[in-house]
Amino acid sequence: MKLLAFDTSTEAMSIAVGDGARMWEHTGAGGAQASSTLIASIMRLLREAQMSLRELDAIAFGRGPGSFTGLRTACSVAQGLAFGAGLRVLPIDTLLALAENARHTSGRLRIAAALDARMDEMYVARYDFASAGAAPDAEPELVSPDHFQLDPGWALAGNVMTPYAQRLQGIGAADFIAALPTAAAMLRLAPAMLAAGHAVDAAGALPRYIRDKVAKTTSERAAERAQQASAT
In the prediction, which pLDDT does 135 show? Predict the structure, then answer.
């Protein structure tokens, strides 16, 4: 099975091409910067792998949650390439790809995947590879770092310790795995997800948003400052 996978939901762009036996990878700047480099990087990697788009069996992409601009970039590129080559697309939750990356590198099987959602919140989903197999399902949610709790026997994986270390109480180095969603992780997940019928037509390359807004309004910020001032 020949697959292309890419994710631009975070600060890192990740691309991978695989043929079932070998894999070729590329990383670069993600988020908003990926919009100007993603297609050219994909085409270079395909040439390196000596594959064409039409030889692929499907295109997997990170659908979110994550950077709004990064998600729109990934979805539009997946949709355009799939339409042009007559391919199906495989939307993969970015938190699942993150959890698979952490599982692969650490050997831990129960993983709470978390990405910094800005605005003092995290995107979080819990994946139990021990009981759910190769591609467990979970519902992402928005969580305040102050209210997050890690169950015994679970690891926290993601990019949240740097901004929220002081607020994630009781989580030490032994329970944290620094990780991001990667295209290599998506290639490992893809065969089971394709076999389960999760591929969709190109028009179904849509982002998964957990939050509908990316910034606070001026009045909201002013109200917060006033509340903080009254509290002191």
Answer: 72
Say how many C-beta atoms besides its own lie within 10 A of residue 63's C-beta.
26
pLDDT digits (tens, 9 = 90+) for 5-45: 999 999 999 999 999 999 999 999 988 889 999 999 999 99
For residue 52, how far is the Cα from the chain centroid? 25
Reported as half-sphere exposure (CB side, CA atoms, 13 A), residue 2 has a value of: 11
Would you give the distance in Å from CA 169 to the centre of its chain? 24
Same fold, 3-93+182-204 and 96-178: yes
pTM: predicted TM-score of the whole model, two decimal places:
0.89
- The contacts of residue 81 (CB under 8 Å, 6+ apart) are 4, 39, 42, 53, 59, 87
Taking the CA atoms of residue 179, residue 181, residue 186 and residue 189 in that order, the dihedral angle to the nearest 10 degrees is 60
Give the Cβ contact number of residue 3 at 10 Å: 23
The answer to whether 205 and 71 are in contact (CB under 8 A) is no
Residue ranges per structural domain of the chain:
3-93+182-204, 96-178
Report the alpha-carbon distance of residue 149 to residue 164 in Å, rounded. Answer: 13
Q: Token match 């019928």: residue?
A: 197
Question: In whole angstroms, what is the distance from residue 121 CA to residue 103 CA?
Answer: 24
Superfamily in which the 96-178 domain is placed by CATH = ATPase, nucleotide binding domain (3.30.420.40)
> In this structure, which topology does domain 3-93+182-204 adopt according to CATH?
Nucleotidyltransferase; domain 5 (3.30.420)
Asked if 4 and 87 touch (Cβ cutoff 8 Å), the reply is no
